[in-house]
Amino acid sequence: MNKTFTIIFFIILSLILIVVQSTILSPKNLGFLSPDLNLILIIALALLTGFKGGTILAFGNGYMMDILSGNLMGVNTLSRLSIFAIIRSTNENVYYHRIPVLFLAIFLSTIFLWVFIWIVIKFNSDVEVHNSFSEIFKNGLVNTVVGIPVFFLIKKFYERVQK
Amino acid sequence: MGFLRRHPILISIILLILAIQVSSLYINDKQVENPFSRSILNLNYYPQKFIHSVTGRIVTVWENYIDLIDTKKENLKLRLENQKLRQKTIEISEVKLQNERLRKLLQFKEYTTHKTVTANVIAGSPSLLRTEVVIIDKGAESGITEGMPVASYDGIVGRIHLVGDKNSEVILITDPLSAVDAYIHRTRARGIVKGTGNSCVMDYIENNTDISNGDKVISSGKDGFFPKGVLIGTVDNIEQKGGFLSAHVSPNVELKSLEEVLVILKKPGNIAFNE
After folding, report:
1. A70 shares contact with chain B (CB less than 8 Å)
2. Structural domain A2-162, CATH architecture
């Protein structure tokens, strides 16, 4: 029963976060100041959930990002899945739930995400990444500042669902 | 499972290679239409529409509240402004005439034989990678299909990329994957207007062409997507690029604050006789 609730919880949460990210906090209006709530959710999935369910949810979230942000299919799906795999492989580290380590994890995940995207885009000569490194750096900081309270909020709800 | 846990970097590299393959596939194809994509777009319609209407109401209530506070000050200010406005009436009548001319250029119904559908922008792209995408609240139920041109009364906005039942995704003309066959209105010089992320550039203009800053750029209708004669933007910088001229074009439509758009129900490839 708990497992079903957990899956439903994360599906609803995914939908809420992606809708918030595409309306109130859309990068179209806020630019690099728009936090990547979807990335924060992927990190939370890697740290809180099981492997199978987490992988499917991370894939679904990335795919939703791809659909709602135009084409370039697979870029968000696979980059976010990759972040999920890396964080998931080290999720037994107890320090992850401490703020400075989490801060670093979210920040480095943002940088990793953009390096991944940059490499993919580089291989496709007709498109370019228009975001400067300073924008990505600032977006990383925004993600960490917003991400930490969001992560602990997700964790709190997750624990409640688990009971 | 243990292998996956032990080799995250290897997995990342595999995923990276896969991403390069998949994305290049889609860039060449430029189509994402499949039932799954469509259902994801449909799934997001009601929540996005709800948030859009709630935030709209909050903004209205807040603006009304602010209005009440400032009414007294504004009353005085408006009286002064009223005097100035009377003086400007003559100027306005001049602008009105100019507006009428522009209206003739921009009234799509006068120019094309196609029907139009008015839609509201309810959401934007959730990704910082591609911000030049918006979601509108009309879809297949209103007769919209992929590739249809989207405009506002100020000019071209973009093209329908993905269609849901009640909503659609629009790729704006400023998106790097957008391209519109265009003319310089004054000299009929031809080129391709491409998106650059937050603006546009008109490439492949012949070297000896008469073109200057301030020239209006309009669609040629020859790409099979956009109707002929719709305003795209204004040239504000020209430079030499290889054997051609390249002009920076500022879109006529304020794409950052887009609220209402007009979808022209013109299927790609159908060039009307009057175009």
Report:
1. yes
2. Orthogonal Bundle (1.10)
